[in-house]
Amino acid sequence: MGTFSIWHWLIVLLVVLLVFGTKKLRNLGSDLGGAVKGFKDGLKDGGAEEKPAEGQTSQRVEAPQTIDVQAKDKTSAGS
Fold first, then answer.
1. pTM value?
2. Are 49 and 41 in contact (CB under 8 A)?
3. Which of 3-12, 47-56, 68-77 has the highest mean pLDDT?
4. What is the DSSP string of 11-71?
5. What's the pLDDT score for residue 70?
């Protein structure tokens, strides 16, 4: 079992292009790029919130009060 040659990868690429089409692959690439960009921006924003700039005070937002509820199963015991 050897490694795949360049011809194997070209055939796989051709099959993928035939199955999905170039438009779907282009849309998939742009969606993936947008998701990665959003993730990076989120990481930058998260780091900025942890370390406020000099002269600024950090405002702490209180989390809403959590209500603990116990769920009961609706099965009839007598049936």
1. 0.39
2. no
3. 3-12
4. HHHHHHHHHHHHHHHHHHHHHHHHHHHHHHHHHHHHHHHHSPPTT-PPPPPPPPPP-----
5. 80
